[in-house]
Amino acid sequence: MAIVDVDKDEIVKTLEFKSETGMPQYDSVSRKIYVNLRNANEVAEIDPATDALLGSYPVDGCRYNHGMAVDSEHHRAFLLCNGTRTLTVFALDTHKAIAHLPLPAGADVVKFDPGLGRIYAACSSGFIAVFQALDADHYRKLEDFAV
Asked: What domains are defined for the chain?
């Protein structure tokens, strides 16, 4: 993973991972960057202030995590786990998976709407899976909306 100084348009550091990486996301509250380590079934945590890798954490019950969205207020990451066809809710503060919800095939892109507390996962099988955050630790699937 290359770290780029956008003012100078140059690579200032490279972080090496023993895994293919997936979608990185920035948590605006903790001020950390999180990256899916797809082959390792882990999430890496990076401090952008120092460009240092702080750790990588296993995501139990998830295989081949690709897409990611972050709920910064509640310190949650929503991971699309293609190998298990689940949306996994991962607690960024405790580094633990707290929920696994079923997904249609081909989940690729996930977005979080903090106003509604909803998670949307676009799937190449022709669905948008919609989930509702009931609170920081409880989630439920609303529907697989055909598109």
From this structure: 2-146 (2.130.10.10)
